[in-house]
Write a structure and sequence with these properties.
Structural class: mainly alpha
Strand content: under 5%
Helix content: over 70%
Radius of gyration: 19 Å
Distance between the termini: 52 Å
Number of strands: 0
Shape: elongated
Number of helices: 4
Largest sheet: none
Length: 86
């Protein structure tokens, strides 16, 4: 009986860890790229901020092409912040 309880406890802990990892996974960079492009198209911020956002977009695109979704998401989030979207 104790072995069964230990196995069940271990399975529950593993399940919790997997769920936490799934929730922390980066958003696919292609989706955030769409959001950035839409935000740039409708931006109502100073041109200098749009230029900075475009630079962050390009850096994010470079990371996306390198299959680094986490790095891409960071640059895209910066671009969205500059555009007042997040």
């Amino acid at each position: 009986m104790k072995k069964i309880m230990h196995v069940l406890a271990a399975a529950a802990a593993l399940s919790t860890a997997i769920a936490a990892a799934a929730n922390a996974a980066p958003m696919p960079c292609e989706q955030m790229l769409k959001d950035v492009k839409a935000a740039i198209a409708t931006a109502q911020v100073p041109a200098a901020d749009v230029d900075k956002a475009k630079a962050a977009e390009q850096q994010g695109l470079d990371r996306c092409k390198a299959d680094d979704d986490t790095g891409a998401d960071q640059h895209f989030a910066e671009a969205l912040k500059l555009l007042g979207k997040k």
